Amino acid sequence: MSGSQHDDTLPQQHTCPTCGVVVTPTMRVCKNCGELLPAATDPRYHTVEVPRPKIPLRSSVGTAHLKPHSKLTIQVDGSDDVIELPLKAEMTLGRSDPRTGETPDVPLDHFNAYQRGVSRLHALLVVTGNTVQIMDQGSANSTYLNGTMLTPNQPYAVHSGDEVCLGTLILTIHFEPLPEE
Hints:
This protein is mainly beta. It has strands spanning 9-15, 22-23, 46-51, 70-76, 82-85, 90-94, 106-107, 123-128, 131-136, 143-145, 148-149, 156-158, 163-166, 169-177.
């Protein structure tokens, strides 16, 4: 495990003048409230520095092989809750949309997802055969795997024990064999 850390902040970003959510200068409509956004040079934009998650860069520690009859679990940093995931081919991680009522496969609202920068459809876990991969879905605040920012829409192998950060929400993913009956 490497002990090096990222810089403490991401490049400066803008916030929606209506709801305050972080937006990119190229966005025309706020993904959170649906308001039309002013031009990036408009003084109504508020510029903020978004804190970068403090996850040390590290290598994967566990197996990348998901054995038959295994369960996939997520431990949320700072919580005793363990989320057991069904082994589906694809599972979206994110937060619920109060306007449409849509909910991702793995809703993280209970963990202050909105305040921690989690997008509604933030990332996708893909189970193919005996491997698990994660893909950032073009989220506003990025997805990190063991401290490395993921390129949107590119799959990355997940190992048991890997840390995934959605915005500033840190999750640890585990593969565990089911007990024999």
